[in-house]
Design brief:
By secondary structure, the chain is mostly helical. It has helices at about 10-20, 25-30, 40-55, 60-65; strands at about 1-5, 10. It has one domain (about 1-65): BFD-like [2Fe-2S]-binding domain (Arc Repressor Mutant, subunit A). Helices cover about 50% and strands about 5% of the residues. Strands 1-2 form a two-stranded antiparallel ribbon. Strand 1 and strand 2 (about 10) form a beta hairpin. The chain is elongated and about 50 Å long. The protein binds FE2/S2 (inorganic) cluster. FE2/S2 (inorganic) cluster (FES) binds near residues 38 and 40.
Length: about 80
């Protein structure tokens, strides 16, 4: 899906750049070739970058449902 119409950047491209260590949407754009133009896409692009790092920063046990401690079910 296109995230940035001005530059033609897709979500997958932004995700790949974030996975290489970039934590800022503007820096991701520069890595892809051009900085933002109108900037309306930056909040969404930053959300993609943040999601990549939220997953990467979370301990492995939190990412693996089998490793999570059991939760108590609420009593009716
Ligand atoms: S839509 Fe991305 S800079 Fe304009």
């Amino acid at each position: 899906m296109y995230v940035c119409v001005c530059n033609g950047y897709r979500d997958g491209e932004i995700r790949e750049v974030a996975e290489s260590g970039v934590r800022c949407a503007r820096e991701a754009y520069l890595t892809l070739g051009n900085g933002p133009c109108c900037g309306t896409c930056l909040p969404h692009a930053q959300g993609i970058v943040d999601a990549v790092h939220d997953d990467a920063d979370r301990p492995a046990a939190e990412n693996d449902p089998a490793q999570r401690p059991p939760t108590l079910l609420a009593a009716e």
